[in-house]
Amino acid sequence: MSILSEDPLEPFYFEHEEQEICGKLVTPITDGFQEDYPTVVDRFFTRYYYFKGEVPYQVLYHSNRICLICLAPDHPALNQGISSVNFDIGNVDRSQNVVKGKGKKGGMILQAESTLALLTTESGETYKVPSCIRGKLVEVNTSLVEEPKLLEQLPEGAGYFAILLPKIENCDAIKASLLTQEQYEERLKIKKEVLPETETSDDPQIVKMELAT
Amino acid sequence: MKNQDLVEFLRTSGVCEVCQLRYLKARGTEYRDVKETLQKLDVKLNGNVENKEGNEDQPAKKARLGVCTTCLGLFSRDFQMELLEGILASDFAKYDCQKIVLAICLPMSLQLRQLAMWFALQRKFGASVDSSNPPDVPIKEAVKLILHPIICEKLAKEYDANGLMINIDLTHKLEDEEVEKLVKLNKEAFPAKAAYQKRIEISRGLLEKQYQPSKVRAETFEKYFQIPGSTVEEPLKLTSIDLQGPLVCVAGKYRKLSRELSHTPWILNGQRLMEDSIEEIIIRHVGPHFTEKLDKITFMSSGREDVDVRCLGKGRPFVLEIPNAIRSCLSKDQAFKMEQDVNESGKVSILHLQVVARDELTHIKTGEEQKKKFYRALCALKEPVSVEILEKLQISVGFDIQQKTPIRVLHRRPLHTRPRTIYSVKAKVQRGNPKALVIDIVTQAGTYIKELVHGEFGRTAPSLSSIIGKPIDIQALDVVGIDLNWPPEVDNAIHTE
């Protein structure tokens, strides 16, 4: 008894109240608890990757085809320290994007290689964050502009640059053009092995062909 | 213009006694006993007045039996009998309704005949007959005053606008012919309109609005129609009787036990994703009592929960809207049986099942954003909870959040950032499992709870995750209350046995 009363959580323990519905006792909500419950990303998204030259980006593909464009975990900027994010890419400011209605009318149409944002690092590098897929720009994560440093520590997905909506009919082709998690890991492995050769290459197409050979 | 003079003129023009009363502007119950009312209005009855056709009863009776030149027999006893027989011969018996409403579609000939009599009265009595206000109680109104009470009495039903609708279609032999004449008359009477309108639409509405002595000259009218209306041999003909049952609304509260049951049929690309739904289970057991056409029933509720969310506590108010119902009553015994049948599904339970008035649907349909919803969420931390975290999740003062349309529905809904109020948060921890929190949350209706918990990549802010500064995920959700005290609680079990 004395041990229990010293438990600081004692005032906070959950007590299930009994209720009968359909002639059955309602099971406590805690019954369904799973230790190894998958994360939000694991539950609803498939991870894909896109390389702009040697720089990897991540596409979180929702089962309803909405795409979140993020930095891949191995993006070099994450190690260099991020100093700024800017959606004003010179000729156009992506943060001015406005969509209306169910059809997201008015959203900018982006190609995979279209620049979505500019990212600068503390080591002075600038990365043009690509759109990674062809689709309509739905939303831009402007909180990154205010606090770019967060990118380094945010949980997976929370550092998304933008939300894109590809056309249904393009989805298969888009997925085929991206790297799956396996392919991505494979490529990183090869890259580490053959680092000197591929470092100069800036064209993802060439890299892919090298992979195939 | 004396009543006596008016009645005598009408009588000689072949107008029946009921219509005579119409021209005397009789009201409501005055039509019940025609002779008594005529006497009250100082009108001598036919038999007592000097009869030009002789003193014998025979010819006078014959005159009365003829078809009235203004109502074409609409108010005759014969027609009432025919109408009653027609109604009884229809599917009328199939409907178990205490209330009825009559909708009678009258031929245009009738309107023309009222106008003819109007002209005739003006000629006879001059300026005492107004040119824009009809001298009679209009036929449509008279039908309500005369026919409705009689039919209701004979059928032993109550008259009610929401009752079983009896649609009655009437024609007259002369109608086609007269409409043709009317088209010609219309061109002459309203040439300006006729000039730019390629096709003139002759309608009852047009007749009602445009055809009165202040707008059409008697001389023009007389080129096509007799003043007063010609005598006819045939009365109105009953062409069809259609029955339209009332719209019955059945309300109750439902609870949902299953985490694998959608609200409404879930169909994606023509394929069913879930075998059953709340809507279908309830309609399957409640619907057949009211209609054979279950697919015409509309299911509505005060909000809805996701497939994987249970709805416990007192339940969620719902309504079934049942059109063309054959029954508008539901006894407690019947309601209780339905409740039991639904409970048998083991997935959904319904309570307080009752028929409600249609205007009560506003409870469900309006003010949705003002309603409070009570939830219980099973949440998971990545590390054992601390007292500090638990204390951060005891919030009794309401606060506002900004919630973007969740990604899971963004493909089919517009992108908006919605302000929502969170009224309270109260977190508990599972004994022996310090990563598992049970959080009771009270929110404004329309808040997405799952996103409120984990913050959805920062798209809902603040979120429970941002409040504690740590990742927190949601594993299960129950609705435990909806603050709508409607429909009233009824215990249908009480009257059983």
UniProtKB/TrEMBL annotation, chain A:
Source domain of life: Eukaryota
What SUPFAM superfamilies is this protein classified in?
Single hybrid motif
Concerning InterPro entries, the annotation shows: Abitram (IPR039169), GCV_H/Fam206 (IPR033753), Single_hybrid_motif (IPR011053)
Q: What are the GO MF terms of this UniProt record?
A: actin filament binding; actin monomer binding
Name a single GO biological process.
Answer: regulation of actin filament polymerization
- GO CC terms for this protein? dendrite; filopodium tip; lamellipodium; nucleus
| Family to which the UniProt record says this protein belongs | Belongs to the ABITRAM family.
The name this protein carries in UniProt is Protein Abitram
As recorded in Swiss-Prot or TrEMBL, the protein's gene is named LOC108015645
UniProtKB/TrEMBL annotation, chain B:
Give every Pus10-like C-terminal domain span.
Answer: 250-483
Q: Which gene encodes it?
A: Pus10
Domain Pus10 N-terminal eukaryotes stretches = 68-232
Tell me which family the UniProt entry assigns to this protein: Belongs to the pseudouridine synthase Pus10 family.
Q: What EC number(s) are associated with this protein in UniProt? A: 5.4.99.25
Which domain of life does the protein's organism represent? Eukaryota
Q: What is this protein called?
A: tRNA pseudouridine(55) synthase
Which GO annotations describe the biological process of this protein? tRNA pseudouridine synthesis
User: What lineage does UniProt assign to this protein's organism?
Assistant: Eukaryota, Metazoa, Ecdysozoa, Arthropoda, Hexapoda
Q: Give the record's keywords alphabetically.
A: Isomerase, tRNA processing
Q: Which molecular-function annotation in GO is an example for this chain?
A: RNA binding
- The scientific name of the source species is Drosophila suzukii
